[in-house]
Structures are given as structure tokens and as C-alpha cells.
């Protein structure tokens, strides 16, 4: 593992921002050309620099405590950062531990009856003098739950991480967006005799009178309601509209910097985008022109979601949420209450309640009828990355099923919430790494989740039980269901995209 100068600069820049040193962060960002780096800031977890430093300390401690013979001597105290970068201190501690180990070996020292750290040995932890082998990674799940390889189609072609994927609402076309500055459309219609076709949508910019690859991440994509157009947002600052045959229909250029989120409205006449330039934009899909730009956030806008065909909510690293309406000059409602970045917002199927999740580890439910949140849900122990509403409840195709909200967190869990009562009804705990994505099946009976443990799990929303599971080859950024609820698509950090066929499982 190694760092580039751009990556180190970005970690320092993010640390300054998070610590409240906004002027210093701004100056450092300008001098280190942060805006020109090819780093998707939306994917860098909070406190990344501190976490890396802490892991470095732990590694240094491990170096000290592991002797040449492979045995371990436990540290009596943790290293400080200053200790770790001072060779004399490290050497002195190493010598002290070696001396202690030697003393433990001497007769009468008590080191042979007990462990070297003073704890008694546990005979039940070993078998026949050998350490108990680690259980295989999949042994903790019912073998019948595992999706066989024959039911998984792995799609190769992307040359970098695949951050997003989305099914066409009308046909089995799967779109994916990657750090290789391309989006791809994969034809997953049932034809087992052929390899799935892929269309490569290259994101290019004008440079020196010629079109060249932008070399920027494709950060977001969304199909329109008819499924005949795909919109993409990129770190190069442009949104683009494509046809299903891969033709570039329109380029939308108004943002000054990376686009983080992008959504069609239900009618399909407007596209909404959010950017690092602190603004949100409503675009006329037919003309490709900016209809209205909203500049109410004090920091990058991270997510947007339509409430109606002409009103929407936006959230930001400034901890604020604004509800805005086309042709209205100011927000029609603003919500404040989060104490850290607001990562995602979603309106319920009726457009009555707005859910938000944040790095402050809380999930909040808001109503246009009041200024304070309806529910302040505090159960996750780390940042909440994303949220999704079930397609159920009054006014939906599944009116007899209760409305549920799912939240995915860096604490490796997914939680299902009964929003009416404001209580967590299920905690899904099989993942072992941060969970980046959740998606409900069209009938609301199942939830797919994707984690950096490389696993996609399918859960019953009624019981909270694990129904199916599949382990890919990279950390999972996104999961999504096709319109019939028969296939789950997933995109991963190793450049792979895969499709799980859930029929007859």
C-alpha cells in the first residue's frame, strides 16, 4: 500500500476542514491544487487521516511486541504519535520488552505457568497443542443461503472502481459508473448463449481543440422514468444525457467543480444536480439548459431528492437541509439539527416525510409541518452513509405493508426502522465492514445490502433474517434491483460489476 502526494494532500485538506480550520483548508486547497486531483471526496470516510495515523501506531506497536521467534509480548502502554516517530524511543521500548521476555523465561519467574502478560492460559482454546484454525469466511452462514456461482454473472470491463450502478426501469439494462471516466450499459436480458453486450460511454472534455478523456470519476447516474435516457454526473463538473444506444444527447455545463448527486424528476422533464460548488441546479432535460441555480448552502452539496416534479430537498457538509421550489428565490423550508455532514436525504413515497442521515451518527425524520425533526433516531455507533425508504405503505403499490426506512452505516450494520413509531425493528449484523448501499426489492419484501467486506446480503424485511448471500471480489459500493425484482446488480472497488439472478433460488 502506498500514497500519492495528491492523496496525502487531500487527507490533510479534509482534516483541516473537519477540525474547523476553514481558512487554512481553503488556502491549503488552493496551493495544493485539490480541485485538480482525481480523488472522489465523497468516498473518503470522516477522520481518515487520524484513522490512518492510528493504524500506523498500532502497526508500530505490533513491530515492537513481535519478537524474532514470532512470539508476542504485550505492550504495557500505548505509543503516542511522538513516540512512534522517535527511533530512540522505539528502540528503548524494544530492548525493554526483550529484557522482560528473557526474565519471564528464567526459572521461578512465573512466566511458564501464566501468559507473559500475566493472564492465565485457557486450555479450551487449543486442540492437540495447535492453535484452533480460523473458521472459513462463509461458515457463519447457512450454506443453503449462499448464492451459487452459476447464478452470478460477473461483468468485466471497467478499469477502476465502480461507484454506482442502476437498472433501467423498463428493460434489463444495467448502467454503471466508474473512476475510469466511463459509464457502461450492460444488456442483461435473458440470453444465456451470449456474453452480455456492453456499451462504453466515454466522458470526454474539450482540450486544445480536441476531445480527450476527462480522467475524472463518474460519481452519479440515473435513468429517466421511461428508461430511454440515462443521465450521468462526473467529477469533471459536467452532467451528461445519453440514449440507450450509448449516444451522447446533451452536455450540461454550469457547475464549477465535481458533481456529487443527480436525479430525474418523475415526469422526466427536469434533472437535478448537486455539486462541490455549494449549488444545486435544475436542468431542462430537453434543451440541456440550466433552468435555475440555487446557492443557499455554505459548503459542498452532497445529495438531492425530488419531493414533487418541481420541488426538492438538498443537503450539505454545512449540516443544513434546504427544501427549494422551481421559480422561488429562497428555500421554502430549512431544517437544522445535525451536528456534522449530512450525507443523504430521501423523501418517503408520498413526499410527506424527509429522512436524513449524517456523520453525527443520527438519522432524522422531518416534516414540512414543523421546524424541528419528527424523530431523532440514535442507534448507530458510526457514521450513517445512506438511507432508503421501502416502496410500501399508503398510496403505493404495496399499501398493506408498513412503511420502513433502511439505514446503512460504517458500523457494519443495517437497521430497519418503523418510522411511524420511531423505533428500530431489525438490526442486520452479518456484515463485517462499512455498509455503503441498501436497496429494497420492488415489492418491499426484501432488502439488499452491500459492504466493503465484499458481500451482498439479501434480507427479509419482515423477519430481518438473512435469505441469500454472495461474496464478490471487491468492496461493494452500490446494490440495486431490477424492476421485476428478479435480479440484483452490484458494483465493486476492484472494477467488477455483477448480477445475481434470484429466480428459483
How would you describe what is shown here?
A hairpin with a 5-residue loop joins strand 10 (218-223) and strand 11 (229-234). The chain folds into two domains: 5-107, Mitochondrial Import Receptor Subunit Tom20, Chain A; 145-501, YVTN repeat-like/Quinoprotein amine dehydrogenase (Methylamine Dehydrogenase, Chain H), CATH 2.130.10.10. The strands form ten sheets. The protein has a four-stranded antiparallel sheet, with no helix packed on it. A four-stranded antiparallel sheet has the order 4-5-6-7, with no helix packed on it. A four-stranded antiparallel sheet has the order 10-11-12-13, with no helix packed on it. With 505 residues, it is mainly β. Helix 1 runs antiparallel to helix 2. 13% of the residues lie in helices and 37% in strands. The protein is built from five helices and 36 strands. The model is unreliable at 105-143 (pLDDT under 50).
Amino acid at each position: 500500500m502506498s500514497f500519492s502526494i495528491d492523496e496525502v494532500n487531500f487527507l490533510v485538506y479534509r482534516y483541516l476542514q473537519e477540525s474547523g480550520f476553514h481558512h487554512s483548508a481553503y488556502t491549503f486547497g488552493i496551493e495544493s491544487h485539490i480541485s485538480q486531483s482525481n480523488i472522489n471526496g465523497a468516498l473518503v470516510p470522516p477522520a481518515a487521516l487520524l484513522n490512518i495515523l492510528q493504524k500506523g501506531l498500532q502497526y508500530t506497536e505490533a513491530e515492537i511486541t513481535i519478537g524474532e521467534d514470532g512470539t508476542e509480548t504485550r505492550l504495557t502502554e500505548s505509543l503516542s504519535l511522538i513516540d512512534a516517530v522517535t527511533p530512540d524511543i522505539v528502540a528503548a521500548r524494544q530492548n525493554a520488552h526483550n529484557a522482560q521476555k528473557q526474565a519471564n523465561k528464567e526459572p521461578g519467574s512465573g512466566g511458564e505457568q501464566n501468559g507473559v502478560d500475566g493472564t492465565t492460559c485457557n486450555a479450551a482454546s487449543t486442540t492437540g497443542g495447535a492453535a484452533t484454525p480460523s473458521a472459513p469466511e462463509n461458515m457463519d452462514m447457512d450454506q443453503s443461503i449462499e448464492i451459487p456461482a452459476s447464478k452470478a454473472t460477473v461483468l468485466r470491463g471497467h478499469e477502476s472502481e465502480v461507484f454506482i450502478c442502476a437498472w433501467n426501469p423498463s428493460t434489463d439494462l444495467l448502467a454503471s459508473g466508474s473512476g475510469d471516466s466511463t459509464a457502461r450499459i450492460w444488456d442483461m436480458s435473458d440470453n444465456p448463449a451470449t456474453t452480455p453486450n456492453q456499451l462504453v460511454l466515454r466522458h470526454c472534455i474539450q482540450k486544445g481543440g480536441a476531445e480527450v478523456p476527462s480522467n475524472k470519476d463518474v460519481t452519479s447516474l440515473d435513468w429517466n422514468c421511461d428508461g430511454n435516457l440515462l443521465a450521468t454526473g462526473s467529477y469533471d463538473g459536467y452532467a451528461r444525457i445519453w440514449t440507450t444506444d450509448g449516444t451522447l444527447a446533451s452536455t450540461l455545463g454550469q457547475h464549477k467543480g465535481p458533481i456529487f448527486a443527480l436525479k430525474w424528476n418523475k415526469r422526466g422533464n427536469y434533472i437535478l444536480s448537486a455539486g462541490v460548488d455549494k449549488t444545486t441546479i435544475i436542468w431542462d432535460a430537453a434543451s440541456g439548459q440550466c433552468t435555475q441555480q440555487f446557492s443557499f448552502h455554505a459548503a459542498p452539496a452532497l445529495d438531492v431528492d425530488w419531493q414533487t416534479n418541481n420541488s426538492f430537498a438538498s443537503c450539505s457538509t454545512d449540516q443544513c437541509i434546504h427544501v427549494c421550489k422551481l421559480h422561488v428565490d429562497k428555500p421554502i423550508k430549512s431544517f437544522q439539527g445535525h451536528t456534522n455532514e449530512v450525507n443523504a436525504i430521501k423523501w418517503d413515497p408520498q413526499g410527506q416525510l424527509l429522512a436524513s442521515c449524517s456523520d453525527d451518527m443520527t438519522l432524522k425524520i422531518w416534516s414540512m409541518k414543523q421546524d424541528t425533526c419528527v424523530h431523532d433516531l440514535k442507534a448507530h455507533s458510526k457514521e450513517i452513509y445512506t438511507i432508503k425508504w421501502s416502496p410500501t405503505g399508503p398510496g403505493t403499490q404495496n399499501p398493506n405493508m408498513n412503511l420502513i426506512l433502511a439505514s446503512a452505516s460504517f458500523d457494519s450494520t443495517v437497521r430497519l426502522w418503523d418510522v411511524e413509531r420511531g423505533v428500530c425493528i431489525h438490526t442486520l449484523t452479518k456484515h463485517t465492514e462499512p455498509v455503503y448501499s441498501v436497496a429494497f426489492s420492488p415489492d418491499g419484501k426484501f432488502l439488499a445490502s452491500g459492504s466493503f467486506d465484499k458481500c451482498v446480503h439479501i434480507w427479509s424485511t419482515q423477519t430481518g433474517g438473512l435469505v441469500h448471500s454472495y461474496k464478490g471480489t471487491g468492496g461493494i459500493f452500490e446494490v440495486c434491483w431490477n424492476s421485476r425484482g428478479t435480479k440484483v446488480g452490484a458494483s465493486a472497488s476492484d472494477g467488477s460489476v455483477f448480477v445475481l439472478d434470484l429466480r428459483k433460488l
